[in-house]
From TrEMBL:
Domain Enoyl reductase (ER): 10-342
Official protein name in the record: NAD(P)-dependent alcohol dehydrogenase
Cofactor(s) for this UniProt protein: Zn(2+)
Keywords, comma-separated and alphabetical: Metal-binding, Oxidoreductase, Zinc
A Pfam family hit: ADH_N
Family assignment from sequence similarity: Belongs to the zinc-containing alcohol dehydrogenase family.
Top-level taxon of the source organism: Bacteria
Organism: Dietzia maris
Xref: InterPro entries: ADH-like_C, ADH-like_N, ADH_Zn_CS, ER, GroES-like_sf, NAD(P)-bd_dom_sf, Zn_alcohol_dh
Gene3D superfamilies assigned: Medium-chain alcohol dehydrogenases, catalytic domain (3.90.180.10), NAD(P)-binding Rossmann-like Domain (3.40.50.720)
Length: 347
């Protein structure tokens, strides 16, 4: 079968023939419906000089935002029907520690026993015709379009988890929020805040078309030039109650700090990895400054419920598998708004 394989850091991936996998105990073979191309993948082959975790050893098939149809059950798996559509929870932990017991495999305390971080991140992922995952990691999609749903596994789950943690700052009367960076995650983040709260949402990005997309979802667009001053003006000088930085670069971190209100919340979601120089006067007093990574299995079930109810809908651009490398290059070049989804078996 064909697969997009990550063969080394600072090395563009390749589309090649690999063996079709077989499901092991507790696993399921999926016929891949859709696999999202994420900036985290770009970090692997374009940005990172080496493995920042020790658990991303190449080669492996990319793709950690995956949906698919059940094709084959591994030993010990029951209760699933061939042809049914599922979304894949990508993180895979040890299954024994406290975080894993609550479905938070992202923060597994015994990663060495697993040997990789997730589907498509150390373990073969869904940028292929078929892939395996654990039956536990499947979230049913019912009659929802699995190709369009694929980005929910990260671009939906990651902002949902961050927003859920900040809910006390978003549910008071007159609450305000700011989304910085309107790529795949940021645009869905705007939709989630709008779906779950009555907060006024401001949104900013260097791309005018991305800001326009956020405005179409009910946000108030803010140009990047003079963004902090504009946000302060819009909030009567107070700043916003909850800021979500979906980039994590030095300029966006500075913008987030300049916009957050006293006793507000600032969550860094993006993985650009730049430094933020903190001192007692850098942030307003009593700001909850935190970072998040992906989300829980329970969160993903809730994301799918929002999607099936029509409350959120990621913007997707579908490519066949033989154009996957083209999609990745466009992602590197900043030419994709929303999410590129690879559909190995068509739409």
């Amino acid at each position: 079968m064909k697969a997009v394989v990550f063969e080394g850091f600072k090395t563009f991936p390749v589309l090649k023939d690999v063996d079709r996998p077989s499901p092991g105990p507790g696993e399921v073979l999926l016929k891949v419906a859709g696999s999202g191309a994420c900036h985290s993948d770009v970090g692997l082959f374009h940005d990172f000089p080496g493995d920042p975790t020790g658990f991303l050893t190449p080669p492996f098939t990319l793709g950690h935002e995956v949906s698919g149809w059940v094709e084959e059950l591994g030993p010990g798996v029951t209760g699933l029907t061939k042809g049914d559509a599922y979304l894949v929870y990508g993180p895979i932990g040890c299954g024994r520690c406290k975080p894993c017991s609550r479905g938070q495999d992202t923060y597994c305390q015994d990663v060495p026993s697993v040997g990789y971080l997730a589907t498509g991140l150390g373990r073969d992922g869904g940028m292929a015709e078929y892939m395996t995952t654990y039956a536990r990691n499947l979230v049913p999609l019912g009659d929802a379009d699995p190709v369009a749903a694929a980005p929910l596994a990260d671009a939906g789950l990651t902002p949902y988890h961050a927003i859920k943690r900040a809910m006390p700052h978003l549910t008071t009367p007159g609450a305000t929020a700011l989304c910085i960076g309107l790529g795949g995650l940021g645009l869905v983040g705007v939709q989630i805040i709008r779906a779950l709260t009555g907060a006024t949402v401001y949104a900013t990005d260097t791309k005018p078309d991305a800001v326009a997309a956020a405005e179409a979802d009910g946000a108030i667009g803010v140009p990047t030039d003079g963004a902090a001053e504009k946000v302060r003006e819009l909030t009567g000088g107070l700043g916003v109650n909850a800021v979500f930085d979906f980039v994590g670069a030095a300029p966006t971190l500075e913008l987030a700090a300049a916009c957050v209100a006293q006793q507000g919340s600032l969550t860094v979601v993006g993985l650009a990895g730049d430094d933020f120089a903190w001192n007692a006067f850098k942030l307003p007093y009593e700001v909850d400054f935190s970072s998040t990574y992906w989300g829980t299995l329970e969160d993903l079930h809730e994301v799918v419920e929002l999607y099936r109810a029509g409350r959120i809908s990621p913007e997707v651009h579908v490519y066949p598998l033989d154009r996957a490398l083209e999609a990745y290059q466009q992602l590197v070049d900043g030419q994709i708004s929303g999410r590129a989804v690879i559909a190995p078996h068509g739409t």
